[in-house]
Every structure is written in structure tokens, then in C-alpha cells.
Write a structure and sequence with these properties.
Blueprint (H helix, E strand, L loop, with lengths): L18 H7 L4 E4 L6 E2 L2 E2 L1 H12 L4 E4 L4 H10 L4 E4 L4 E5 L5 E5 L3 H21 L15 E5 L8 H13 L3 E4 L3 E5 L5 H13 L8 E5 L5 H6 L2 E4 L16 E2 L4 H15 L1
Parallel strand pairs: 1-4, 1-11, 4-5, 11-12, 12-13
Antiparallel strand pairs: 2-3, 5-6, 6-7, 8-10, 9-10
Helix pairs in contact: 2-8, 4-5
Amino acid sequence: MPDLNPDLPGATPWPPASAERLAHLAGVAGVLTDIDDTLTRDGAIEPAAMSALHALARARLPVIAITGRPAGWSEPFALAWPVAGIVAENGGVMLRRAADGTLQRDFAQGPAERAANWQRLQACAAAVLREVPGATLAHDSAGRLTDIAVDHSEFAHLNPAQIDAVCEVMRSHGLTATVSSIHVNGWIGTHSKWSAAEWAVAALTGRPFVPADWLYVGDSTNDQMMFERLPLSVGVANIARFWRELRVKPAWVTRGERGEGFAEVAAALLAAR
């Protein structure tokens, strides 16, 4: 079997090699996953990832996606993909199919707080565009309800210094700022991918969130909180782009990138059951 990408020093290939870890996979309660560049390529879900989602659904192994993408972008996928739900905007909005097949939308914050925050978010967005030369808002900004996003790698390009400058402006306005594989996201509040997992698992499965029972799949620096707090964490191979920037690395790394890597994770989980 070939070695992992040499740009991933110290990475451990997925699946786990130890019998103890392999046995633990059989008891995994579900999968938490990022979307962009973990399930998708260029904004569209890869066929291998879609097949893997269907296979996990048939095995009654729930998948909950947690993404920095906006609610408006995520809504059709929450209805069409075989997932338990999608938490968009880094924990701000939860989307799921209701019993009658329609979309149910829940928020981490109440309407008054969201309205007040919206004014601050727009002021911050204007400051970013004014103070960081070359900065542009993400193309999906019209669908955002609780955050703002600046494009750094989807349709525009910002270098590391520009990305740092965007984060600095956001934080100076009291926002939490994180960097995904395509955007710099900023929001007001204490919600995060971690709080999204706690919220969504309880709401969508009716069971409390036990971190050791769930596996997380991601691809970039904004997944570090999940890599740190879930003992079963996997990076798809394109995490190589961020590997040297990661303060906390995933426990394992797949050989395939994006949706192919996610399919590797699903295959190992299904084989263990």
C-alpha cells in the first residue's frame, strides 16, 4: 500500500490499524461531517460521497453535516441528501426534513438577537471590503442569515496575509472568525461546530451527544475543534493544504481526497458493523 502524501508528516492512515480501534468502529453511533471539500468538489457533491451517504442511511447510521455554508445554500441538500440534518453557518441554523417532508429551520439565537447581530455583521462586512484590498464577499452571501463570509479560494483568491487581515477586522468588530477551505466566516455568538454537534445530535436522534460515540470528518483549519474533542476524527487527503497550519490534527487521514476520502471512511464503518 503506498505511503500517504509526503506533505503530511506524522499522519496516520485511515482506517485504524489496532484491533481495539477497529472493534470500536462497530459501536459508532453516527457520523458528523464537514461539507465543502469533504463531501464536495467545486460546490457539488461527489458521486462517491453520495453513494456513501446512501449506504450509511441504509445501515441506519445517521449522518449530520456541519458547514460554514449559508442556510440558503444548504436547504435543498437538507431535503435531498440522505442525512439526518445539516447545521449551516457554523452552528447558527439547523435544517432538517419535517415529518410531512417540508423543511424545518431552527436557530441557535432568538429573533431579536439575530436582528441586532445582523446590523453589526453588515457593518463589519463593509469594513472588511473597505480595509482589506482585494476582499470580496462570498457569492453565496445572499443566503446567509446569521453570519458573513469572505471568499478566499472559491471564485476569488486571497493570500495568507490578506486572509489574516480579514480575520483581524472581523475580530475587531467582536466576531468569531474561522477559515474554511474556501471562505473566511465571521459570526457573533458562542455557537460553533462543536455546539452544533451537541445541539443537532440531541435534536435529530433524541439521544445526548457522547463524543466518543461519533466520528467526525473534515478538511481544514476550521475543523480543529472537532479534531481535538472527538477521539474518532478523520481528515480527507486534501487536508494536506492546511496540514502545517493545523494546531490540532485529525487522528487519521484518508488516502482519497474529498468525496472519495469520505467514502473510505463510510466503507470502514460499514465493514465493522
